[in-house]
Amino acid sequence: MTAQKHRTSPDRAASRPPRPPRPPRPTRPFTLWREVLTAYAAPALTAGAAGAVTGQRDLAVASCTSIAGTSAVVAFLIGTWLRHGGRPRRWTLAAPRGVLTAVLVITAVGAAALLGWFTAQWLPAHTPVPSTPWLERLRVDLPVSAALATTIVTLRWRSTTTAPPA
């Protein structure tokens, strides 16, 4: 048999009835404890594996402490704020997904960067806490973890909500 016989002619394809639209896939509801657990486990596993493979002991330790811990805390705070006691704020539903995500990421990264600076710079200069390499890591770990956790939680939350009536 030739390949010609297996091809569908344009007339035959046009005569087929259109397929019915697929029903939307049900999304898993936004469950805060599940999002926080995922926000901790995902960076802990990935950064921990990267630290183990590259032989960077400090990255392996930071993966379970500052990186994953920050992600879990930020996921909890952003998720709690978005849910707002079960009734989301109207503007969080009305704003475009990208705008909402950008506003929350900028806010979370700014707060995390300030906390990282405070911990790494101000704390050793004004208290008996010595400046150590792991404190310096916080200036990078905290904002990066906050950005990733905020983006994922916001997009995940937004995918489970419906727009407010106009």
The total of helices stands at 7
Oligomeric state of the chains? single chain
Largest sheet: none
Terminal CA distance reads 59 Å
Structural class: mainly alpha
Q: Which value, in Å, is the CA radius of gyration? A: 23 Å
What fraction strand? under 5%
How would the global form be characterised?
A: elongated
Order of helices and strands: HHHHHHH
Overall mean pLDDT stands at 86
What is the helical fraction, as a range of percent?
A: over 70%
Low-confidence stretches: none
Description:
The protein is mostly helical and 166 residues long. The chain is built from seven helices and no strands. α3 packs antiparallel against α4 (57-83), α4 (57-83) packs parallel to α7 (133-159) and α6 packs antiparallel against α7 (133-159). The N and C termini lie far apart (59 Å). The model has no long low-confidence stretch (mean pLDDT 86).
Short note summarizing the structure:
This protein has helices at residues 3-6, 10-14, 32-54, 57-83, 90-94, 97-126, 133-159.
